[in-house]
Amino acid sequence: MIEFRNVNYSIEGKQIIKNVSFFIPDGESRVIMGQSGSGKSTILRLILGLTCPDSGDILIEGQNICHMKIKDLRNIRKRIGMVFQDGALFDSLTVGENIGYYLFEYSKMKLEEIDAKVREMLGFVGLSDEIIDHLPDQLSGGMQRRVAIGRALLSTDPKIMLYDEPTTGLDPQMIRNIISLINRLAEVKRVTSIVVTHQISDAFELSNKFIIIDSGRVAFDGSMIELIENKDQRVVKFLEPFREAVANVRKIDFI
Hints:
Number of helices: 11
Largest sheet: 6 strands, mixed
Number of strands: 10
Strand content: 15-25%
């Protein structure tokens, strides 16, 4: 599980996260939405322990990671997979080397064993092992995101997966593919998933539980129906550009 308790965080005197609290149970998918600069990605950094809050507590699987010893924090991070918006692949390494990076560097597995694991993972994320020797710049953006997901899964066998704008910049078909893969991971692997996005149409396909961050504060935390019925002006304003998507969800739900 993941829990924020009254978390505050500032950068150079500017408060980015303001008294944020939420709770995500094991195995649940949650989408965090908000305008650019609202603090969404900062929440992911805090979950990873890449930075510490000014005040408040962050609990991962019941352990408070705030001011935790580096050794203990590393053990927590081993259970968390992270997929960045740009994939963050190593440009000079092949697809196979990227996916198997952790095993090459930190395991004692034989090369043929790692190769088998990498090919198996390529299949799981819906890619052909024919691309195993390709470099990242030979792949489409969507394929790079799939490779990044595969690397995260093979590196840590995570209990938690974090995604930062995983569908941004992709064509509609690839968006569907990435959403399908994220949903499959949540179902098959039973991982706790947090997806940061500002695309409401994608969000509605990824979860039925949402958090909206507005200027560093939690403006909403609840279900899809609670979201579309919410009268808070911060929520109404955020949803306004997505009226068609909201209307379609409303029609489906009330049929």
